[in-house]
C-alpha cells in the first residue's frame, strides 16, 4: 500500500500543503546466525536501500505500526525491542506535489520468522545483509543501523 487512505482523505481537504505525520523506521536484526544480519529493502520509488519505513495509522501504537510495516513490506515477522532514536525527517516534496514532514521513531527489532521478499509493491527487493556488508544507505539509515546493532541504549535525539 503506497498511500494510506487516511492521508488521501486529508489531502482532499488540504491539497498539497505540508502534512505532519508520525513515521517509523525498523532495523530488523537476525542474531541467529554467526554474524548478525540486517533486513534491508530496495525502494521501488527511488531505488535506494533502507531499513523498513512506514506511516503510523491513526490510533496505532508506533511499535505495532513498525511490526505491521515489516510484515507488509518484506513478509517478515519481527518484534520491536527498543527505541533507537526520534527525529524529524523532511520536509519531502513528492512527485505529485504533496509536501510531508515526519516525526520518525526508529526501533531495533529482532527477526521472529519469515524469509524476506518484496511483499507489497513498495519495494523491488528485500533481503538480509551481513552487518559488515550493508548496501549503500543515506547517513540517517547508516546511523540507525549502527545504533541498533550496538548495545541497548537510551534513544538518541537531535537538538
Automatic annotation (TrEMBL):
Nudix hydrolase domain spans which residues?
Answer: 19-151
**Keyword Hydrolase assigned:** yes
Lineage, top-rank taxon, reads Bacteria
Q: What is this protein called?
A: ADP-ribose pyrophosphatase
| Entry keyword set | Hydrolase
Q: Which cofactor does it need?
A: Mg(2+)
Q: Could you tell me one molecular function GO term of this UniProt entry? A: hydrolase activity
* PANTHER family the record matches: ADP-RIBOSE PYROPHOSPHATASE YJHB-RELATED, GDP-MANNOSE MANNOSYL HYDROLASE
Tell me which Gene3D superfamilies the record gives. Answer: Nucleoside Triphosphate Pyrophosphohydrolase
User: Which source organism?
Assistant: Enemella dayhoffiae
UniProt entry tagged with the keyword Mitochondrion: no
Task: Tell me the InterPro entries matching this sequence.
Answer: NUDIX_hydrolase-like_dom_sf, NUDIX_hydrolase_dom
| Cleaved signal peptide residues | none
Amino acid at each position: 500500500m503506497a498511500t494510506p487512505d487516511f492521508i488521501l482523505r486529508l489531502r482532499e481537504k488540504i491539497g498539497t500543503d505540508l502534512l505532519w505525520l508520525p513515521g517509523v523506521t525498523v532495523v530488523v536484526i537476525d542474531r541467529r546466525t554467526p554474524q548478525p544480519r540486517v533486513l534491508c529493502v530496495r525502494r521501488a520509488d527511488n531505488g535506494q536501500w533502507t531499513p523498513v519505513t512506514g506511516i503510523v495509522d491513526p490510533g496505532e501504537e508506533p511499535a505495532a505500526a513498525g511490526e505491521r510495516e515489516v510484515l507488509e513490506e518484506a513478509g517478515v515477522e519481527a518484534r520491536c525491542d527498543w527505541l533507537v532514536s526520534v527525529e524529524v525527517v523532511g520536509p519531502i516534496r513528492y512527485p505529485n506535489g504533496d509536501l510531508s514532514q515526519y516525526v520518525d521513531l526508529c526501533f531495533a527489532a529482532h527477526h521472529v520468522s519469515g524469509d524476506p521478499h518484496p511483499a507489497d509493491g513498495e519495494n523491488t527487493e528485500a533481503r538480509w545483509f551481513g552487518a559488515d556488508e550493508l548496501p549503500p544507505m543515506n547517513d540517517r539509515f547508516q546511523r540507525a543501523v549502527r545504533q541498533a546493532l550496538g548495545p541497548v541504549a537510551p534513544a538518541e535525539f537531535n537538538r
